[in-house]
Amino acid sequence: MKKSKKILISLCLILILGSLLTGCSDKTYGNYKKAVEKTDGISKSSGEFILNTKIDFNREGLSKEVADEMNMYSDFYLEQKNKSDVNKTTSDIYVKLGGLGFNVTYYDDDKRAFVKLPMVDKYIYLDDLMKMGAYSESEITSYSNNLISKESIRAIKALWNDSIKKNDVLKGNKSLINTPEGEVKAEKYTIKYSDKLLKELLLKTFEILYKDVDFKSNAKMKIANKDLSKESVMEIKKYIELINIEKFELNSYIDIDGYIVKEDMKIYFNFSGDNQYIKKFSMNFSSKLFNIEKNQNIVFPKYDENTFISRNELSKGIPSIYKNIFNKK
To answer: Which residues form the signal peptide (predicted)?
Structure first.
């Protein structure tokens, strides 16, 4: 298998580790589940979200092109501040990638979503960005809606929920948290997995995925311009055995009203062997939710079609202003 393929497998594994965070034990499990459902039903709120990932790549034997591409993802930082009302959402987003930081503002009025580009007073419709890709709109929709079959999703959730109940990985205790309204009492729920247990769960998860026709079909779609074939999926399964999980912890804080108002998560792992293309990986995530079910005073900018970059301009690639910036780096 080519080196770029192995790197792709590593990145896919990272996504899977970060996404399998569902589940929770009897009374404790029931309380947590109710809080998840109630929080999902919020129609108005403000919030903050921070994500930081660091990857130590093994660059030995890589071409300069691949090494430079991997270096872009060695230290990723995302900070996002959101406001959501019944039919409006705004997000101020700061992203730092490959040493370059930029701000983007996101708007959604339930009709169309668009973003304001950094450094220029121009906007782009997200629909237009999606249609610039290598796939048709119907392919993208099908891929998003049918990545994994509903039967497999139910089986994976049952697997992880059962594991949490049987292995006593969920703990609950009293806590205090700071909010814009002041210090409040909360119930803290912590999920921790050992290296052995987590790897067993990941292997069983891939056994479910390998039998999933939808997943194997969608695995053939290109990700980062690489083909993720069913053989690659099996390679990921073998790759799990090489993981050494140093830490896997998720903390959720539920306030007196039954909402999850704060979460933080830590995932640290490394790979065994001298020829692995990812040596170490760490992810730190935190989120806060406040002003729940209160008016958010969301203000949209004044705009018309002239303030949007056309599809024709988008088809030419990055606007010249950004090309000039990147060429100076």
So the answer is: 1-22
The CA distance from 117 to 295, in Å, is 27
What CA–CA distance (Å, rounded) separates 3 from 84?
A: 43
Task: Give the whole-number percent of the chain exceeding pLDDT 70.
Answer: 74
Q: Kindly state the DSSP code that residue 302 receives in the 8-state scheme.
A: P
* Sign of the C-alpha dihedral computed for residues 84, 89, 92 and 98 taken in this order: positive
- Pinpoint the alpha helices (H) of 79-149: 126-130, 137-145
DSSP summary character for residue 308: B
Tens of pLDDT, residues 157-195: 888 878 877 777 778 888 888 777 778 888 898 888 888
From CA 203, how far away is CA 216, in angstroms rounded? 16
pTM: 0.72
Q: What is the pLDDT of residue 149?
A: 79
Going by the DSSP 8-state scheme, the letter that residue 133 receives in this structure is: S
- Contact in structure between 49 and 271 (CB atoms under 8 Å): no
Q: Give the range of the structural domain holding residue 76, as residue numbers without chain letter.
A: 3-327
- Domain total in the chain: 1
Q: Is 246 exposed, middle or buried (0-12, 13-18, 19+ CB in 10 A)?
A: middle
Could you tell me how many residues make up the chain?
A: 329
Mean pLDDT calculated for residue range 208-230? 58
Structure tokens at 194: 């050992």
| Tokens at 96, concatenated | 């730092």
Tell me phi and psi for residue 121, to 5 degrees: -85, 60
